[in-house]
Amino acid sequence: MVTLFLCCRHLVIDPCNRTPSHLPQPDRWLDSQNDKLTQIVCGWLSNLAWDGWRVDAGTSPFDSTAFDVRDLLELRPERGKRDGQGFRVSWFSVERTDSGKTRVFDEDDEVDADFFECEAYQRIWDAVDLLWLIFDNGEKHDDSNNRCDSLCHRSESSHENPLPPDLAIRLLTAKQSLLWLRESLGAFPGYRLTLFGEDGFNIGDAWFKTMELGCERLNERVHAYATQPPCANPQDDFGQEPISPPADTVK
Questions:
Q1: pLDDT digits (tens, 9 = 90+) for 139-177
Q2: pTM of the model as a whole
Q3: 103 contacts: CB under 8 Å, gap ≥ 6
Q4: I want to staple 77 with a disulfide (CB 3.0 to 4.6 A). Which of 24, 38, 64, 197 is the partner?
Q5: Is residue 89 within 8 Å of residue 76, measured between CB atoms?
Q6: Judging by DSSP bridges, how do beta strands 2-11 and 88-96 pair with one another?
């Protein structure tokens, strides 16, 4: 399956301030908590990228069954080693929900997971691009050309259109997902979490406020664009001068 160049660097702070140096054995509880935190991030990003993505599993246009692609594919974290500061590093990959090549939904209908793998990969990066766009617009000194692209190994065309045509709908989904993420992370007091590399998103109250402001600013931009009056002289867009009547007809 496809491994994504998305890094999740995280650490759960033990509320009892225990450290491995004075424990008789490695603390499996902390590892378990770190795994749960990673799964929350993984589920959040997967839902943000694939929410509402339904595919046709029917044998004909007249006999089809649309199903959620998350019944076929899922985003999974691959646990890495701890770094020198005790942070756990995880990478994400798109994998099948079962061990076989296909998933059977009916007696005669089956779907090949490989067919949707590339699109699933692209949808993840589209979700990451949306998060960066929201973050850029939420910063006090907004500069959309100063985005940290080096952390996200996405396609060169990812930033060709700074305002995607479906941005209004995706913003609503993103805003709801951010509320869910903030609430879910509340179960880990004192957590440390950085997404997409060490210089990426440092998740915390300040980050969530920046993202909230970014959603508001983008909503304003989308609304302003949608309410622009139509051009009075469409031919001007092609570099043409408006046609004037002959001089002898002017009164």
A1: 865 444 444 443 343 444 444 445 677 788 889 999 999
A2: 0.73
A3: 71, 72, 96, 97, 110, 111, 113
A4: 38
A5: no
A6: antiparallel
